[in-house]
């Protein structure tokens, strides 16, 4: 049993969000849907109150708490990808389902939750002991919306100079 799970506050669409995430990411599922036994401030008896779901093996609880609180960029989910194909697949799945792009590998899904679709190699590059190469990779990343690994690699190697 999971001893801690992030609770995400949705405005009535926790089940739709859980279904979307389960459709995009492997090792993901909608585990349980719980309906309210009584009326509550933002819903009626029988409405979906909470949804237990798993994304990439991590447990979450979605709460249909109403419009009071909104997601912002102070919380985001960073998804580490192995290659450009995986980066493209996750990025496109979020955008193709009503999401919006941002900068430096960040995007926001249609529910307002921020995601960072981050190739593992990016972290390796910007933490390199070769400070000049790390700086070039970081500077290249700062110009991107979706991360392009080939462009990062060229910058890291100094091939674009």
Main-sheet strand order equals 1-4-3-2
Question: Which fold does the CATH topology of the largest domain refer to?
Answer: 2,3-Dihydroxybiphenyl 1,2-Dioxygenase, domain 1
Q: How far apart lie the N and C ends?
A: 53 Å
Q: What is the CA-based Rg, rounded? A: 19 Å
Query: What structural class do the secondary elements suggest?
Result: alpha/beta
What is the overall pLDDT average? 96
- Write the CATH architecture name of the largest domain: Roll
Q: Kindly estimate the percentage of residues that lie in beta strands according to DSSP.
A: 25-35%
The biggest beta sheet, please?
Answer: 4 strands, mixed
Q: CATH homologous superfamily of the largest domain, by name?
A: 2,3-Dihydroxybiphenyl 1,2-Dioxygenase, domain 1
How would you spell out the order of helices and strands?
A: EHEEEEHEEEHHH
State the name of the first-level CATH class of the largest domain. Answer: Alpha Beta
Overall number of domains: 2
**Shape designation:** elongated
What is the tally of beta strands?
Answer: 8
| Fraction of helical residues | 25-40%
Description of the molecule:
- This protein has 161 residues and is α/β, with parallel strands linked by helices.
- It folds into 2 domains: 1-67, 2,3-Dihydroxybiphenyl 1,2-Dioxygenase, domain 1, CATH 3.10.180.10; 71-161, 2,3-Dihydroxybiphenyl 1,2-Dioxygenase, domain 1, CATH 3.10.180.10.
- Helix content is 32%, strand content 27%.
- The strands form 2 sheets. The chain has a 4-stranded mixed β-sheet with strand order 1-4-3-2. Strands 5-8-7-6 form a 4-stranded mixed β-sheet.
- Strand 3 (48-55) and strand 4 form a beta hairpin.
- The chain is elongated and about 65 Å long.
- It starts with 6 loop residues before the first strand and ends with a helix.
- The mean pLDDT is 96.
